[in-house]
Specification:
- The chain is an alpha+beta fold.
- The protein has 2 domains: 357 residues, 4-Layer Sandwich (Deoxyribonuclease I, Chain A), CATH 3.60.10; 34 residues, no CATH class.
- It is 26% helix and 29% strand.
- It has 7 helices and 14 strands.
- Strand 1, helix 1 and strand 2 form a beta-alpha-beta unit.
- Helix 1 crosses helix 2 and helix 4 packs parallel to helix 5.
- The longest helix has 31 residues.
- The radius of gyration is 23 Å and the shape is flat.
Length: 399
């Protein structure tokens, strides 16, 4: 039996000092040192075996954080782990306290294909794994064929279509060998809720960006564009997930969804929730009002939906522990979970053919402040997201 931890960590704009990532935004050497130290301390606290990072501008900067984490971890081991001469050296508590370095860990980085020059940088994502990877990592961003989403008017006429050729940020897919299993892990960072405002040819900025001449309808249209893009990106991720599930592979999906669990984009990724019983539902091809699905067909439908659904680690934990409050984001007084860990039914305790299950769920969110809090400037350097981690067990037999 193998126990492991898997975490999602939006680091918020990780890049070296004196590198302008967004317009007029960069870190001084002192700010970068503080941010690197803070991230290393969080990573040390998590001590996770697999970490999915978002908002990585520079792989080298991430490696700096990992190196500093290892230095802190080795120093902590030196201070708190007794040597073999101590009679209590074999106590289980010290195995739990020990930090395992990332020296031999594998790191996969997916840069953003939108990434530009100074002031026009775009972040990518990365996955760190103490178990290494099975095969090469895969990146999904520039689609080989555009995704065309057709619409129809209510009368049935052609309603046009929406085309997606490239995702706003890459999706990183890796296969991780854990115990006697290989788990497919997806790391994503979907389009944010910030509005999309097209800039007219020759204009210095979109008119909706001029807040003095506030255009409420135009800004609402920008939010509509962002939501449509986010949902289309969610479908691209869902299609990739289905390829793995249909091949019989266990799947875990982590990242910054930029939406809560019950948002449409999240439901696209997880798959639809089945009804309790389809036998009461009128058939799709009903010939009269009494023509409903049979009990046998209900079983078929339940299995067809259940085998491709994903399940929220947070909700499994809340159900198991009777806790009722987890949040990973705070802004303007709204506290919600927009970072998620989802898993296929291979990890559900009630699934007969499970390969493992979640034992615990952790969230590090004490550093979060909403935008009106006096300590809000602290969020410039610290992450503005909580870190979430699932404690998993996989396989049969002894550790």
């Amino acid at each position: 039996m193998t126990r492991f931890t898997i975490a999602s960590f939006n680091v918020k704009n990780l890049i070296e000092a004196e590198e302008e990532y967004y317009r007029f935004e960069e870190y001084t050497p002192e700010e970068y040192a503080w941010k690197r130290a803070w991230l290393a301390d969080q990573l040390l606290t998590m001590n996770a075996d697999i970490v999915c990072f978002q908002e990585i501008f520079s792989e080298d900067a991430l490696r700096d954080v990992i190196i500093e984490t290892d230095e802190l971890g080795l120093a902590a081991n030196e201070a708190v782990i007794p040597d073999r001469s101590k009679r209590y050296a074999r106590k289980a508590i010290f195995r739990k306290l020990a930090y395992e370095t990332y020296t031999e860990a594998a790191l996969a980085f997916a840069p953003n294909s939108f990434d530009g020059g100074p002031g026009q940088r775009r972040p990518g994502v990365a996955i760190l794994s103490r178990f290494g990877f099975d095969g090469l990592p895969e990146v999904i961003q520039d689609l080989p064929e555009p995704l065309d989403i057709p619409f129809s008017d209510l009368g049935g006429a052609d309603g046009g279509s929406y085309r997606l050729s490239r995702l706003s940020r890459p999706i990183l897919k890796v296969r991780v060998p854990v115990g006697d299993q290989v788990v497919t892990v997806f790391n994503c960072h979907l389009k944010s809720k910030l509005g999309e405002f097209p800039r007219r040819e020759g204009a210095a900025f979109p008119p909706e960006a001029d807040l003095v001449n506030y255009d409420a309808a135009g800004r609402a249209m920008g939010s509509l564009r962002a939501a449509l893009r986010r949902m289309a990106e969610a479908w691209v991720l869902r299609r990739a997930i289905l390829d793995e599930l249909e091949a019989g592979n266990p799947v875990m999906v982590l990242g910054d969804f930029n939406d809560s669990e019950h948002a449409v984009s999240s439901e696209i990724i997880t798959g639809e929730a089945p009804f309790k019983n389809y036998a009461w539902m009128r058939r799709h091809d009903a010939k009269d009002r009494r023509d409903r699905y049979s009990d046998e067909e209900d079983t078929i439908v339940q299995e067809a939906i259940g085998k491709v659904r994903l399940y929220s680690a947070e909700k499994l934990f809340v159900k198991k522990s009777l806790r009722d409050m987890v949040y990973t984001s705070a802004f303007g007084g709204v506290f919600e979970s927009i970072d998620q860990i989802l898993m296929s039914r291979h990890f559900l305790p009630e699934f007969a053919d499970r390969i493992g299950e979640m034992e615990y769920f952790s969230v590090l969110n004490d550093h979060l402040t909403d935008g009106s809090h006096p300590e809000a400037p602290y969020n410039k350097l610290a992450s503005d997201h909580g870190q979430i981690m699932a404690h998993m067990v996989i396989g049969d037999g002894d550790d």
